[in-house]
Amino acid sequence: MQQTKSDTRYTKHKKIIPFVPEGDFYFVRGVKAFQKRKFDSAIKWLKLAVEKNPKEPVYRCQLSVVYTEIGSYHEANQLLTDVLTNSIDEYVDCYYLLANNYAHLGLMDDAQKYAKLYLDKDSDGDFSEEAKNLLDLISDEQENNEETEWNLEDEDELLIYQETAFYYVESRQWEKALAILEELLTLFPDHIQGRHEYAMALFFTGHKEKAIQMEKDNLASDENSLYSHANLALFYYLDGKRAYEQHIRTLLNVYPMHDQQKLMIACTLARTGFAQEARERFAALNKGIAGNQLSYFRWYSYALHETGDDQKAYDIWEQGKTKHPILHAEPKPWGE
Q1: Which of the residues 36, 62, 116, 310 has the least number of beta carbons within 10 Å of its own beta carbon?
Q2: How far apart are CA 228 and CA 64, in angstroms?
Q3: What phi-psi label fits residue 323: left (phi over 0), alpha (psi between -120 and 50 degrees) or beta?
């Protein structure tokens, strides 16, 4: 076969032509990882696909599906909204995907709006049956809610406050968390979780005595409150008071069923000098659920480092940064 000019040049200089994957290469890898339910890998590959070709909406849509699968509904919705806002062609499926995510968040008015939008734009689309079933479900819930004290507007408002407060608490933006939680408790004064998060926000904005007294009062009315024991253990420990020990003893003897309580105890143990015990609690968690929270990666990696497993600590921290980009702005929890 006749050798071309380019072949001769390549042979003469032995140049190595670097392989630069296009977005489709990363996209295919991401889809395969997703099909195998390797969600962390799927997110990594699909993010690379988006970075390689940010104008390709299909990449963002698929990444949103992975986020939905792991329960990161806000991240999923952000991607879908971006596709609808910035793409020349309208990707109608985004409307159904948004509806599905809002339904999972309990924001039924939004779920209903986007499900109707989807059917208006493509009544025979791939998700038409799912959209109709979702609307039927919402209709049934609305009828049931008419017979209860709470209505959809109240529930939606509460969920918005909860999600916003949770984000600020997890990202340690305490002043913003405090403001949101004050509004939440004004509207919903009996919201138990809100009271405990409010106490924590008080403590980390310098109102330590008020935070401690609030949790002592909570404990007086409910001596089995794990959140009060956890908050008081942390508050006293950070304040240098040995009173934290009695609350830690309570937590060490409790193995709750609820995932959020399991994670809360693990984080508290890690932050109060019980790294080995914390490590064991973290290892027993359902990563698919706990991994949606910054605190899981922040304090699990810390507990691993404190117990001498530096490589795994680093690996967990890197996983956290991949899943929660906000962690890129934080130093490693063990202070190096």
Answers
A1: 36
A2: 36
A3: alpha
Spatial CA neighbour of 302 closest among 256, 268, 253:
268
Instruction: Give which of 216, 217, 277, 278 is closest to 247, Cα–Cα.
Output: 216
Count how many residues are written for the chain: 336
Strand runs labelled E in the chain: none
Handedness of CA 172, 230, 206, 188 (dihedral sign): positive
C-alpha span between 40 and 326 (Å, rounded): 16
State pLDDT tens for residues 205-248: 999 999 999 999 998 988 888 999 999 999 999 999 999 999 99
Cα radius of gyration rounded to whole Å, the chain: 24
Domains (range + CATH), the chain = 23-145 (1.25.40.10), 170-329 (1.25.40.10)
Cα(235)–Cα(272) distance, integer angstroms: 10
Query: Letter for the amino acid at 124?
Result: D
Output the pTM of the full model: 0.56
Closest CA to 282 of 232, 316, 310: 316
- Give yes or no for a contact between 215 and 199, defined as CB atoms under 8 angstroms apart: yes
Q: Are 202 and 214 in contact (CB under 8 A)?
A: yes
Residue 71 DSSP label: T
CA distances from 142 to 96, 105, 117, 162 (A): 20, 16, 19, 21
Residue whose tokens read 């104008």: 55
Q: Are 306 and 334 in contact (CB under 8 A)?
A: yes
Q: Which residues have CB under 8 Å from 212's CB, separation 6+?
A: 203, 232, 235, 236, 239
For 305-330, what is each residue's pLDDT tens digit? 999 999 999 999 999 998 888 888 88
